[in-house]
Amino acid sequence: MIELYKVSKTVPSGADDLTILHALDLVIPDGQFVSIVGPSGSGKSTLLGLIAGLDAPSAGEIRIDGQSINEMSEDALAELRSAKIGFVFQSFHLIPSLTALENVLVPMEIAGLRDAPERARQLLGDVDLIARAHHYPSQLSGGEKQRIAIARAFANEPKIMLADEPTGNLDSQNGRHVFDLMLEMNKKRGATLVLVTHDHELAAEATRSISLRDGRVVSDSDRDAEFKETQEETVEVASS
Fold first, then answer.
1. Going by DSSP bridges, is the β-strand pair 2-13/59-64 parallel, antiparallel, or unpaired?
2. Domains in the chain and their CATH numbers?
């Protein structure tokens, strides 16, 4: 579970301070698929970075599986990310000197997994790129690079998958393919998926959609909660 309590982010801006995120309360249950939308500068990527522990909040508390990450050391945060969090960036962030297979292997080798090579090949198969295992990033298309990034993000079977505009640098066909792969792997592994996107069609497929504007939540629509509430109301009416 992801929990944020009164979390805000303020940075210096000239003689003044700029508030990127205002005090925010947010709880994301295990396994939920959440999309985060909003115009540029609304705080979407900042929010994702805070959840991942890549940045620290100016105020408030962030908990991952009940564990507060605010006071964690960099080593402890790195261990948490390795064990529980996968991250997919818009710009892929592949290591250019490593092959596709080696890029997927990196997080598993850091974690000391014994079956790392076999698992890496399985993940490449999951994203339909086993034939490109020994190609370097410079030899791959944009869509292929992002699919490698997705395989790498799922390498350690994270409980939480964070994706920051993962289709932003892709054409519509490749973007759709990458999104479908993320969704399929999310369902297969039951990981929580938090997707930042400008694509409202993709965002609409999430079970919950959060809209940000000027660092504030302006809407939070949870279809699962709405469906459950409707079902409970129906049962109450039927039993009365």
1. antiparallel
2. 31-55+84-239 (3.40.50.300)
